[in-house]
Write a structure and sequence with these properties.
Number of strands: 4
Order of helices and strands: HHHHHHEEEEHHHHHH
Strand order of the largest sheet: 1-2-3-4
Number of helices: 12
Largest sheet: 4 strands, antiparallel
Shape: elongated
Strand content: 5-15%
Low-confidence stretches: none
């Protein structure tokens, strides 16, 4: 794991675009120069907002500019391609994972003078755009559709946990975990195991006590024939989550891994 990368991410906690750029460069080993593209979006939005004075009208107009004028509207997907996580390719093709798009829109809105944050509404990350002291618009970064209070209350009421954990601004660590988890899944789906392993390594640094990340690292190491470390990660998961259905399957896997006859990579 790259300690310098973790230090850089922590240094740029308020600049999520910068943090995603650093992560992308580390995972794919390719320089990213996305800021000029995003600044072009900022310039366009600022020009279009010049003649709008009312705060609510400004907020609504910004959303229309992003999703209609600039064609950032998308439909829900069952799975996202890896391309949707690479900033330059994603913006250029308009195929952008919702968390990535939320980070981009947060940057654009802040540069245009808005107060905005990422919030977790049950099942997804959304954006809350502050209009004034009384009004805010909560909208889906995928489609631009906003939630009214009835829909919001209904979603929160359906979740059997404390409602106060929702609608709180997500901190940088939570956003990066969402990004890395989604990217990891996309990379695994496309059989890019080495890059997926980089995501898991960072996630374990961010969530060192999470046995599910150790399970995923074990799976990836197993695919890459690093059986000894995979064995250790599988065993950790089985010990920490013995009642999990996956643990029963992994117990059989552990019996089949012959540690003494493998090479530690």
């Amino acid at each position: 794991m790259n300690d310098l990368l973790l230090s850089e991410i922590n240094t740029h906690q308020e600049d999520l675009v910068r943090a995603l750029t650093l992560l992308e460069e580390f995972i794919f080993e390719k320089k990213v120069n996305v800021l000029p593209m995003i600044e072009d979006i900022v310039d366009y939005c600022e020009q279009e907002l010049e003649d709008v004075d009312d705060p609510l009208a400004q907020a609504e107009h910004l959303i229309n500019i992003l999703f209609l004028d600039l064609l950032f509207i998308e439909s829900k997907r069952d799975a996202w391609p890896v391309m949707g996580f690479k900033l330059e390719e994603a913006i250029g093709s308009r195929v952008i994972h919702p968390v990535v798009k939320a980070v981009i829109f947060k940057y654009v809105a802040e540069q245009c003078g808005f107060e905005i944050d990422l919030v977790y509404v049950p099942e997804k990350v959304m954006l809350r755009l502050i209009c004034d002291q009384q009004f805010a618009i909560i909208f889906d970064p995928l489609s631009g559709e906003s939630l009214n209070w009835e829909e919001l209350d209904s979603r929160i009421d359906e979740v059997p946990t404390e409602a106060n954990q929702y609608l709180e601004p997500l901190d940088s660590k939570a956003v990066l975990v969402e990004y890395l988890t989604a990217l990891k899944n996309a990379l695994i789906k496309e059989d890019q195991f080495i890059n997926a392993l980089k995501c898991v390594d960072i996630l374990i640094e961010l969530k060192p006590e999470d046995p599910f990340e150790r399970r995923d690292r074990g799976f990836l190491l197993h695919q890459l024939d690093c059986f000894k470390v995979a064995y250790d990660d599988y065993q950790y998961f089985v010990d920490q989550c013995p009642q999990d259905p996956a643990a029963q399957i992994l117990k059989l896997q552990l019996e089949n891994i012959k540690v003494s006859n493998t090479i530690l990579h």
